[in-house]
Amino acid sequence: MVGIDGDREMASLADNDALQFILLGIVIVISNGMLVPLNCSHLPNMLENVTMIETYYDNMPNPFDQGSKLSNMAQVFGSPGIDWLLPMPPLRPLTDGICYARTDEPVGSAGFAKVYEDSQWREPEDVWRSRYHAQMRPKDHGSGEEGPFSSVVKWFHG
User: Fold this and answer.
1) Cα–Cα distance, 13 to 7 (Å, whole number)
2) DSSP 62-91
3) Cβ contacts of residue 52 below 8 Å, gap of 6+?
4) Which has the least CB within 10 A, 14, 94, 116, 156?
């Protein structure tokens, strides 16, 4: 009697495992169906070091092209290493993720643009402001009223 019940239990487990395996396969096929087109559209842009918007500009050469596909990939993934294969932040990043090296800027010892290795550029936002000529807005201390949505209201009013 024990042998017959054990066989039924094993058959039930096998059916359950097969169902889980099939469902996992369906999830994988659906995921690949979405990720493959995404990678096919973005991989060429990464190899040329351009964004989707920059692909439509024909009026000048790409100022961010580092000269080789490997160098362009290093701008995104950091210096080549094992961390390229793992889902983790780069161990040796070449940029701060805000401002990327242009081909017309000399590179400093740390791999960043030489002009931004000075001590005055401690915060990434300072580099961004310098690169894009953004001005800091003076803080408005006039109203004195701070509510839960004051930052959202300030954002909408500019």
Assistant:
1) 10
2) -TT--SSHHHHHHHHH-SSSGGGTSSS--S
3) 41, 42, 45
4) 156
